[in-house]
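B., you asked whether I could sanity-check this one before it goes into the benchmark set. Here's the sequence:
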Amino acid sequence: MSTTTPQTDRLTRRFAALKAEGRGGLVTYTMAGDPTPEKALDILKGLPAAGADVIELGMPFSDPMADGPAIQAAALRALGQGMTLKGTLDTLRAFRETDNETPVVLMGYYNPIYIHGGEAFARDAAEAGADGLIIVDLPPEEAEELLPQLRAQGLHLIMLTTPTSDDARLPRVLEKAGGFVYYVSITGITGTAAAAEDAVAAAVTRIRAHTDLPVAVGFGVSTPEQAATMSRIGDAAVVGSAIVRKIEEGGDVLGFVGSLAQAIRKTA
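And here's what the prediction gave me:
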């Protein structure tokens, strides 16, 4: 089993509350600065009331190699609006002025963090109100570059596992993990085909044999029905590209998030 000791923090409290309610959670993803910094903040502030249990806030980067066309385009729109890493943290600070309970995880790539400086970034992220980090291109073999700085600030490093993470590799990944485990349910990029239910169930069972951390299932989850299914198999469903596409289209983003949350709650 993982030696990770859960901290008494927003993420731990939220997943404990979901377990007590007998339901899975909804993890939503939006990109800081997309479509504009002002509109992005409005959407961010509206997510908890719409039904988001945990929020992933994207840090825009010019080369988002794990992301599909929707999130790539969102990153370019945000960068075009002048959004930066500092601006992302300012967005989070503004969110925390009215919400100190909803867990927020910053998601992105290591290059901007490396340029900012690991120790300074961890300090600034914690001060802004972050609860953890998902760094797509920081594998467990390189996690020690940043993990001590994050832990010193009480921040979790949420690790990714995939369909190709076998029983030999899983323990190496999970020994670095905190907060929850993000199961990437498909091989490939975000926003593509959905995974088969049976395959996800088998993978989640295998992950749980190695850790007590909650498991959130993402990549390819785009409809209320899929979100309900994946939240039932795991401890939460992650929806990103579908929300980002709603933003790009100028659609009812919070209404869509509400439909996802409602479908998940019906499975409880």
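One thing to flag: Residues 61 and 78 are 9 Å apart (CA to CA). Otherwise nothing jumped out at me.
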